Structure formats: C-alpha cells, structure tokens
Amino acid sequence: MKKYICHIVYIVLLTAPVQAQKSTPVRPQIVAVVHDVAQQKNIHSVNADRAISIASMTKLVAALAVLESGQNLTEKLTVRGRDRSPRIRPGLQMSRYDLLELSMVSSDNLAARTLIEHYPGGYNAGLEAMNNLVRRIGAVETTLVEPTGIMAANISTANDIVRITKYAASWNVFETMANLNQSRVGAERVNRARAVVQWIVGNSTNPFLAHPNEFRMLVAKTGYTTAAGFCLTMAIEYRNRKYILVTAGHANKQSRKNTADELVRQITEHRYKIIIDDAVDADDQILTKDQKEYP
Length: 295
Fold this sequence. Notes:
Beta-lactamase, 295 residues, 11 strands, alpha+beta, two-stranded antiparallel ribbon, globular
C-alpha cells in the first residue's frame, strides 16, 4: 500500500505544472578608471578588465571608422535604418558631418546607423571596419555587433574603452562636439517635388556642460542600456596633462555624474603621485596621428 501511494505522489509531482520563478534583472557592476596618458597607466582602477556592455560608447567607434575611411563629410546622405530617433526619420537628406554631430552630441541611434549604412561596401563592411579598428589599436577584448550600442552584445572593457577614447582624442572633431551644448543641424525633405530644409535640434548628453570646468574636454560620450547601466567616457586635459576617465554600470544619471566627479577629483586634487620623468615624450601618445580639422 505504501509503495502504491508513493507511486501516485511521484506521478503527481511529475505532472504538476512548475511555477515559473520571477527573474530579477542583474544590475551591472560599476567600473571606474582614470588613465594618465603621460604615464601610460591607470592611476585609479575598479573592474577595469571586466567584460561589460558599452551602450552608446559604441558610437565613438562608428564615428572613428567613418573618419578613418576618408569619406566626404559634406556629402548628403539619405537617412535609413530601423533604429528609432526622436529627431530624424528615414528619407531625410543630411550631410555626413551633421549625422556625425547628431550621433556624438545627442547620441542619436538612427544617425549612427545611417553613417554605417553608407560606409563604402555597405553596412557589413562598415561593421567589419569598426571591429578591425578596435583590434588594430589594441582593444582586443572589444566585440561590436552593430553601430549604435543599443544591443547588449556590444562588449568591451574599461581598459579597451580607454584605448578607444585615447585614439578618438587625436581627432579635433571630437573636441568640437564634446563642447557643444546642443546639436543644430540641417535636413532636407521632399515636399511636393521640392526640397525643404528643416532644422534638427538635439541637446547634448554630456553632463559636464552644465557648469564651467577647470579642465579642457577633448572627447566625451555617454551611454545607457539596461545591460550597461549609465556610462561615460571622457578624455580631458588638466594643467597640460591628458587623462582618460571611464565609468559604467550606474543605476541612474546622478550616480554616473557623482562617480565621474570623483574621478575628476582624483586628478584636480592630486590624490595620486605624478611621475614627471620622461612625461614630455610620453604625453604625445595621445597625438600619434595628425590632428584632423573639419568645418
């Protein structure tokens, strides 16, 4: 009898519906790095080698791939792609430079996508160029599957983002865009067989533009996805020395800004020992290629 009852219980357990467990989103771990370009080393480091999703910091690589290819920045491109944008829509005509500006200043996904859609050889060639670029500059832990950062599979490390940001600082165009409070670009649309120009306005996502800073901003790119948290990378110059600051994994914008402020204080309040020996030569590491100037 006991054996019979046991069999019944066993069958009931097997056939009973399993109650699904609620999955709790995993909060990304915070990473934070201050890199001294002259010393070529991190002077502050938290989880610098941890693989992280990088959100819209991906757009830095997309912009670099476009600039490296030598494409005409004044050429008008047709906006295309499936990414959402609160500012532009498929079919508009915009210059490559204006798309770059909208992508970097306002972090517009459709602008970034359009740039790679128009890469010589097409979208796949542009994506391949992005991955080749990061490998060439030593960011070997970085894998990019699309140009906007919206997908969690865009993976890197804080140390790799340092390498990417350092390289971006060798192009003057990024300094120009890092210091714009607002992106205001032109777009053409066809209205009853004639071109009509409209102005596209997007506010900067850079949290350091609200107040004056005691440092010079060379590169700045923010980002946010659930996988990445709120993140930021910057290249700055303070008292003729250059630094890269990277942080990610924050639950909100205020947490990101608080950490970024603390990273800046690591520099401005001299919370570490600066080794001056041969710093003059090493400081040129951030300017290893000719400075590029664009209108």
